[in-house]
Amino acid sequence: MKGGALLVALVVAAAASLLARPPAPEPSAAAPPAGTPAVPPVAAAPARTVQAAGPGWFGEMPRAAPLTAADSMADARLHGDARTPPLAPPAAAEAGPSSAELADRHAYRDYEARQEARVMAAFASAAQREVPRLQADVERARASGIPAAQIARVEDKIRRLEQLRREIANPGAALRD
Q: Where do the record's region annotations for Disordered lie (predicted)?
């Protein structure tokens, strides 16, 4: 029974908030001239100003009132936040398979092999750059007294990265071992 009463209370509160809102203004009959862009109501609002704080370096200058939290959130929702860094660098538009490669399964298999080779080469290159950094980390860890078990985990990671890099560079060597 409590759930039903709670539901009724929520419905009544929602209805009361809807009735308490002022009615929306009637749309004007005069439409903007053709060719003029429609301006959203948020952008058309005049800038708010407050009284100047007093004589300053530039005399009596009005300053803009700070945005309310709701206005700031609405603006960020519509236009984003300029302070936010990009999530990822823009990816270069890679050309996908050509229509001839899509039509011929052997040509498409060659395309897939080239893509896989490109990924493997990128991994090998990244591993080659990462190993010296990890080795420097191991040396700093030894100098600062980090436990040997933690150092051994990083050394094992270095060994596995080197092994994978060698396997990628020499795919036939992994089969002989």
A: 22-42, 69-105
